[in-house]
Design a protein that fits this description.
By secondary structure, the protein is of the alpha+beta class. It has helices at 6-16, 25-39, 44-53, 57-65, 76-92, 111-124, 126-132, 142-150, 163-169, 181-184, 217-230, 294-301, 321-327, 351-360, 405-505, 523-529, 533-536, 554-561, and strands at residues 100-105, 133-139, 152-154, 170-173, 176-179, 187-191, 203-208, 231-239, 252-256, 261-264, 306-311, 316-319, 364-372, 378-390, 393-403, 508-513, 518-521, 570-576, 582-594, 597-607.
Length: 609
């Protein structure tokens, strides 16, 4: 992405106090881009405006950048070594009531801090643990710290914990497991930025695993200096499997490189460099030398190190063969004042060194002086001025010139090789850290996918349950439908039977309900009055236009609805049938009883004889 991410990082620092400038750019930009893709924004500038308008987005962004990948007993062999070796060793040097302090930096949702609590409690015993243990879990993600403070986890998260430890240190409530309240008081969680905030001090065991892989080399160096300060002398640091600390040899020394355990080295000032100081004898002749000391003089003269001797008055009294050839001294120069000779200021200023050696009455070393003996003859010399003292009196000084050109060349080659090795290691370390970061991102993504898969599986199970319930309801509906179909057939048979009965009566039959709406109108009624059942049924009886004077039936119908005797409902009326002939029609009105109550009236109509 061509757009610069710096304005966005500055805004995050200014608005929320999160300083991501020490994070590796490639990883940081990849995580931010992942969030941009989720919200459907193309550039950092647009996303900055989106943050300004939607403050709740900060939480989602930080959760995306701060990858919280952790688990109980992550890398079990490391925890086994800590429990069996590190904790007993530290505890053996403490009084029973002396505090034992552990710092879990970058603790995420707290699994690592509670793992340290279990390991420490197992090693010290529950009683001593409650009296002296203090475990600090820190992170920059407030949401993760909130989860850590609750100390509540599900069965899947506790899979790495053995059943024995789970039963001993967790209390189960439904499907959740809570870390024991009496031990949880010793575990303190708080926000701490490894790059900006002051470290926790006087720590015995510091666990900071896979937190530094997200930072640049400069930020890692600053973090390691803070971690060194946080530890007690001989305190132990545990880092991630991709973090080696090779360059920090002045801060930590390895305990187990494979397990990434290191011990603190106390910070000291740089040591002064001291040269090899020549000792001058007491001036008495050696009994093993030939008379006159000729053998001794020849041996000194043939020494490979150039050497001259100057008396207390500053006069050159001796120069061996190597000095004469290197600095072009002749026998005529013996007895001359040192200040008159070129060697007094080339290759270095000797007079001030001689005076210092006389004043301080000790050897004075001037190391690594560059000197050119001639074209193409560049040399590096170590110059040592040693005062010659006999019986408390300074007689002069011995000045030696040691050629360390070859050593300097080897040292330069070694430094160059070391720098190349460090560069290669940094590249390898960067690659390893990138792979580790990518692996944790993939692990985080995998956990998200697992969560999504579990949700989908749960939804599928719910759908399957609903499907089974619907299938059961469908089967019940089919059973009910079969019953209704059977009853319908029975009703059809009864209706057919009644229709047959009504037809064979030879009498017009009309059934009305309590509201006098027609319910049944048989074939004989149709033949008498010329009105089909479809036209009559459902209509109010008094609204029908037929040749029968229906108004005269109101009283018999009312008596029948009131449940009067059937004989009171027989009347004879003059009517006109459907053929237009005048007839005398006898109408009988009888109550129509349903379950002991009058539900309507049955009217029987026939021609009077």
């Amino acid at each position: 992405m061509a757009e610069d991410v710096e304005p966005l990082l500055e805004y995050l620092k200014r608005a929320r106090g999160f300083d991501f400038t020490g994070y590796k750019r490639a990883s940081l930009e990849r995580r931010i881009q992942h969030r941009l893709d989720e919200v459907g924004i193309d550039g950092y500038g647009d996303y900055l405006e989106y943050l300004e308008v939607n403050p709740e987005e900060f939480s989602f962004l930080f959760n995306t950048i701060l990858i919280n990948v952790t688990s109980f007993f992550r890398d079990p062999n490391v925890w086994e070594y800590i429990g069996n070796e590190v904790v007993p060793q530290i505890a053996s040097g403490k009084a029973d009531d002396e505090p034992f302090r552990i710092w879990c930096a970058g603790c995420a949702s707290g699994e690592e801090a509670y793992t340290a609590a279990m390991v420490l409690a197992e090693a010290l015993g529950a009683e001593r643990y409650r009296e002296c243990a203090k475990i600090y879990g820190t992170d920059v993600d407030e949401d993760a710290l909130m989860t850590a403070r609750q100390g509540v986890y599900d069965a899947r998260q506790l899979e790495p914990v053995s059943k024995e430890l789970r039963d001993r240190y967790f209390e189960q409530t439904n499907a959740k497991f809570t870390f024991r309240a009496d031990l949880r008081r010793t575990v303190i969680f708080g926000r701490n930025d490894l790059v900006q905030d002051a470290p926790i001090s006087r720590v015995d065991l510091l666990i900071c695993r896979n937190a530094m892989i997200y930072f640049t080399a400069e930020a890692q160096t600053r973090i390691l200096e803070r971690l060194n300060f946080a530890l007690r002398d001989e305190g132990v640091l545990v880092v991630g499997k991709s973090e080696m600390l090779v360059k920090q040899h002045e801060l930590f020394r390895p305990i187990d490189v494979k397990l990434r355990l290191f011990r603190k080295l106390p910070r000291q000032a740089a040591r002064e460099r001291y040269g090899f100081l020549l000792q001058v004898g007491n001036g008495e002749p050696n009994q093993g030398d030939p008379p006159g000391g000729g053998f001794r003089d020849a041996a000194v003269d043939a020494a490979p190190v150039a050497q001259i001797v100057v008396d207390a008055a500053g006069v050159l009294v001796y120069a061996n063969q190597q000095a004469r050839s290197s600095f072009r001294l002749s026998s005529a120069d013996i007895g001359r004042a040192l200040q008159d000779l070129e060697i007094s200021y080339r290759p270095a200023e000797l007079r001030s060194m001689v005076e210092k050696a006389f004043d301080e009455r000790r050897p004075v070393l001037l190391g690594r002086v560059d000197w050119s003996a001639g074209p193409g003859e560049d040399r590096v010399l170590d110059i040592l001025v040693t005062p010659v003292i006999m019986k408390g009196q300074i007689l002069g000084s011995s000045i030696s010139f040691t050629d360390v050109t070859a050593h300097r060349s080897l040292q330069d080659d070694l430094d160059r090789s070391r720098r190349e090795l460090e560069v290669a290691y940094e590249e390898l370390q960067s690659t390893i850290e990138e792979l580790e970061t990518t692996n944790e991102e993939l692990q985080s993504t995998n956990e998200e996918l697992e969560t999504t898969n579990e949700e989908l599986q749960s939804t599928n199970e719910e759908l399957e349950t609903m499907n089974e319930e619907l299938q059961s309801v469908n089967e019940q509906a089919e059973t009910t439908n079969d019953e209704l179909r059977a009853r319908g057939q029975d009703v059809d048979q009864v209706n057919a039977f009644l229709e047959t009965v009504l037809t064979n009566l030879g009498t017009g039959v009309v059934v009305i309900d309590q509201d006098q709406h027609v319910k049944i109108w048989n074939q004989q009624a149709e033949d008498m009055w010329g009105l089909r059942p479809a036209e009559a049924e459902g209509q109010h009886l008094m609204s029908l236009e037929i040749g029968l004077p229906l108004e005269q039936l109101k009283v018999p119908i009312r008596l029948a609805l009131a449940g009067e005797q059937e004989g009171n409902g027989v009347v004879e009326l003059e009517a006109v049938n459907r053929l237009g002939k005048t007839i005398t029609c006898q109408v009988t009105a009888m109550p129509f009883r349903v379950a002991g109550a009058t539900g309507g009236v049955v009217l029987l109509m026939e021609k009077a004889r």
